[in-house]
Amino acid sequence: MELDRYDRAILAALQRDGRTSNQELADRIGLSPSPCLRRVRALEEAGLIAGYHARVDARKLGLSLMALLSVSMDKHTPERFANFEALVGDIPEVLECLLITGQKSDYQLKIAVRDMDHYQHLLLNRITRIEGVTGVETHFVLRRIFDHRPLPV
């Protein structure tokens, strides 16, 4: 899909506030409501807008400990990776799972847990028990500087 300035303006505005009404969005980008809505629907159908989500404060849910886990695997086969990805996909505390390149790690996981006991249980009873996991290195997040930045459009 070829993006023009209106499409880019729509994407930028909706990344900042996905609850913006069509009228507000149209006013903001300089279009009338009907063509604005058609463009939004076209962006959705093209998959450029993948969804709309509420950002929830983890601390207010009691999830005050965030960590980044670097996970090493024993084999680099599609089957081993598919199994790992399916199993971590079923763990609600895992917020992100990235297959990475680099030194020793194969995956980077971002997790949110209540406390150190919750982390220990997750690590020892779920993550390290996944077939093929040979090592986990954890970095605890002290403070989030920013964590939800819009994509440049």
Give the tags.
single chain, 153 residues, alpha+beta, Arc Repressor Mutant, subunit A, Alpha-Beta Plaits, 2 domains, 4-stranded antiparallel sheet, 5 helices, 4 strands, 37% helix, transcription, Dimeric_a/b-barrel, Tscrpt_reg_AsnC-like, Transcriptional regulator, AsnC family, DNA-binding
Task: Characterise this structure.
It comes from Brachymonas denitrificans DSM 15123. This protein has 153 residues and is an alpha+beta fold. It folds into two domains: 5-45, Arc Repressor Mutant, subunit A, CATH 1.10.10; 59-140, Lrp/AsnC effector binding domain/regulation of amino acid metabolism (RAM) domain (Alpha-Beta Plaits, 2-Layer Sandwich), CATH 3.30.70.920. Helices cover 37% and strands 20% of the residues. The protein is built from five helices and four strands, in the order αααβαββαβ. Strands 2-3-1-4 form a four-stranded antiparallel β-sheet. Strand 2 (94-99) and strand 3 form a beta hairpin. The two termini are 13 Å apart. The mean pLDDT is 96.
Can you identify the CATH class of the largest domain? Alpha Beta
Distance between the ends: 13 Å
- Number of structural units classed as domains: 2
- Helix share bin: 25-40%
Our Rg estimate from Cα atoms comes to 20 Å
GO cellular component, one term: cytosol
InterPro entries: ArsR-like_HTH, AsnC-type_HTH_dom, Dimeric_a/b-barrel, Tscrpt_reg_AsnC-like, Tscrpt_reg_AsnC/Lrp_C, Tscrpt_reg_HTH_AsnC-type_CS, WH-like_DNA-bd_sf, WH_DNA-bd_sf
GO molecular function: sequence-specific DNA binding
Domain HTH asnC-type: 3-64
